[in-house]
Protein: Polyphosphate kinase
Amino acid sequence: MVKTKNEYINREISWLQFNARVLQESKDHRVPLIDRLRFLGIFSNNLDEFFKVRYATVKRIVDAGKTGKSVLGGERANDLLEEITKIVIDQQTRSLEIFQQIDRELREENIFIIRETEVNESQAEFIRDYFFKKVNQELMTIILNDLTEFPLLKDTAAYLAVKVVMKNGSSKGKHNRYALIEIPKGIDRFVVLPKEGDKNYVIILDDLIRFCLDSVFTMFEFESISAHMIKITRDAELDIDNDLSKSFIEKISSSVEHRKISDPVRFVYDKSIDKDTLQFLKEKMDIMGTDSVIPGGRYHNRRDYMGFPSLGRHDLMYDKIEPLPVKGLSMKGSLLDMIAHKDYMIYAPYHTFSYVTKFLREAAMDPQVRSIKITIYRLASDSQIANALVNAVKNGKQVTVQIELQARFDEQNNIEYANFLQDEGVKLIFGVPGLKVHSKICLVEREEDGGIKRYGFISTGNFNESTAKIYTDYTLFTAHQGILKDMNKVFGFFETNYKINKYKHLIVSPHYTKSSFMKMIDKEIAFAKAGKEAYIKIKMNSLTSYKMVDKLYEASRAGVKIQMIVRGICCLIPGVEGMSENIEAISVVDKFLEHPRLFIFGNDGDPKIYISSADWMTRNLDFRVEVGCPIYDPDIRQELLDTFDISWRDNSKARVFSAKQDNAYRKRTKGETELRSQVEMYNYYKRKLES
Structure:
């Protein structure tokens, strides 16, 4: 049965509201100015991915002639596409207004992002020299008029649509020439010009090219040239063929390659473009009324603002934090020895991620270590993790890597790593047919006292040194043999996936995650009905499973107190009388991307606490291999209760979920001190070190 809109928030609409919270950060004057510009870049990058994946999925439903109501929370797919386009146009308009405000404030700080019309003589000389030395040879310029077939535009690449008004052309413009110039990706989007006194000047590559257009079109006798930005976004779903003669790597490689020619799902253009130029492009590109056509600003690919140069103005950026050590876990001694006696938890980026790489390096060189098994979802471009695994092979260890080739937008990177690791002698496993492997686990087997002892770690996030600096995630190091025996069964499932294992400690998708959490919610419901204290505390990225939403509604009606911290999509509507009045939900969007999955159940005074790689989304519960791990160590249990409480008490960057979907900031009560959870979290761990 499909519920009504009043019981669920549609997941696509909820995602757009999450991206609106990112946009709020770019407007927030408490955020340093250059970081506000970078949040605009994150907003734009998020939107690109949304159209590639989610919008494309809804469009496929429409193209198949279906309504999609059963999977879209009661929304008709056609209506949803219209609603999405309306919201996106509104958000794009707001983002342009915010950019203009940031630009004004940058000028007050003597940082000038100038257009081609603002260039002075000395800058003109620098720009032309830069253009001929670095840009001209990289330009791909296509004259469109005489082409019988329109060129294939690259997904989310930015193009200048150029109109060349010829001398002696007719009044109707029949002799206008139209061209496309692809903005080169191998050149910095922001060109820093020579400083003049205390004034910094930056010109965007697009405008630098505009300034030099006369040099590009020297073969024409023209009266004027104008250039306006366009871009398209293509469907990024992978269509994997069933050719039995191909290896899995070959199939994924072929699917990634096919993305280049997949159907467009969005066309964005500079709204100041000449009408005849726009009409020419739409006719040539065969853009229909059903496509999402978005009028935008002068510049596209604003995701590039994530890399806006610092210009030495560190006062206009967030202070970098120095990652802390974990109390009692020394980088100088043997991590395996320390973990043998006690579990340890790191919470990146507050703690240094170096513990993970040191653990693997130590295991790679330890003469008693026999094997290392690890799952890989996303790796850094220059991965110390991969290097440590290769080092282990060279030291005679048996190394098994389960690498997920279908990790969204990291497919090519993972294919390259798979080939590299395989060439170095690492045993590779390519997952389970029909399931993505999203678990974050590592298992080391070491020979001790005539037998095998296991060590390992389990995380809520990827084993990636780069994202560990900006994503918050828990990683548990443990020598608990029961947990690690279960972990070994997970690796066994990767190789013999027809066999469904039973686990004493871990909660594993797709077989047990949903049912296990359902049972724990049922226990809280029973406690509440018996008049006992009953509560659930959840921290995760997204909540989209309608079955889990319904179960939480049931718990709320029974009197279970539920606190939820959901960074992204939340299909549940809290605070509705008779349905969810016992549920409160917030989202924290700040400097770091909140990424942990933490689940706390009251359990009649003896809380059950789990960390997990799984959100409560249908894909995580039913179509992925995910691992949740119980926390047994009393110190770590208290730490997780404390960190949840710190996030929950945020009254600076917390937005409150409600039926209004207005992203309202949580209000502070009179006399209440401001608490920004990410700052307080760092201070909490500093105090632990000092105590």
Summary: Residues 17 and 661 are 7 Å apart (CA to CA). Confidence is low (pLDDT under 50) at residues 238-245. The domain at 335-495 is CATH 3.30.870.10 (Endonuclease; Chain A).
